[in-house]
Specification:
Arc Repressor Mutant, subunit A, 2 domains
Length: 197
């Protein structure tokens, strides 16, 4: 039982790096077999298809993202400081840590799969929407606590933050310049400070 769990984890870990670097469509089953040192029978004993592997890889990437981006966030009482910490974590702990060899897994997959697989694309987009909703909840909490100016569009602000973070991802992946991360953090923190009463 333990060996089966370890084998499955290894398939997911190796495929995550392969999909991140080569993309989903350019990664063949043979690439996965070579990376995991499994036979086809061994691989298909755990997953029915490459697409099934992708969904497991996506779930693992989300776990990694959450562990990095939401680290120490819940301990922060001020909702706006919580958002600022999340932004810093996303840029430095997630993107800047080069966890995935090819850069941001989600951005890479969204770019590749758009127009190719509407089901997989929607799956990724749901993750971005959930992240924006979390930020929106924190913005509403800040308004309820009297920290924000009145009449602000919480949803629009949350979407703007998510779009800005994702705009930094390909620029950083292409250049590996830490200044891109620092500049994004600084400008988003400045933006959030302008929302305070």
């Amino acid at each position: 039982m333990k060996k089966g769990i370890q084998t499955r984890k290894n398939i997911v870990a190796q495929s995550l790096q392969l999909f991140s670097v080569k993309g989903f469509y350019n990664t063949s089953i043979n690439d996965i077999l070579e990376a995991t040192r499994l036979t086809k029978g061994g691989l298909y004993g755990h997953f029915r298809s490459k697409e099934d592997i992708w969904y497991a890889v996506y779930d693992e990437a989300v776990k990694i993202w959450r562990a990095k981006v939401l680290k120490d966030v819940n301990a922060i009482r001020d909702p706006l400081e919580r958002i600022e910490k999340t932004i810093s974590n996303d840029m430095r702990e997630y993107l800047g840590s080069d966890i995935f060899d090819g850069g941001c897994f989600f951005f890479n997959m969204l770019g590749e799969l758009s127009g190719q697989s509407s089901t997989m694309t929607r799956h990724i987009l749901r993750g971005f929407v959930q992240f924006a909703r979390l930020l929106e909840q924190w913005l509403k909490a800040a308004t309820d606590e009297g920290l924000l100016k009145q009449g602000l569009d919480h949803k629009g602000i949350a979407n703007f933050i998510v779009i800005t973070l994702n705009g930094a991802a390909p620029l950083y992946a292409a250049s590996r310049e830490a200044a891109i991360l620092d500049h994004t953090i600084k400008q988003l923190h400045f933006f959030i400070q302008q929302l305070r009463k």
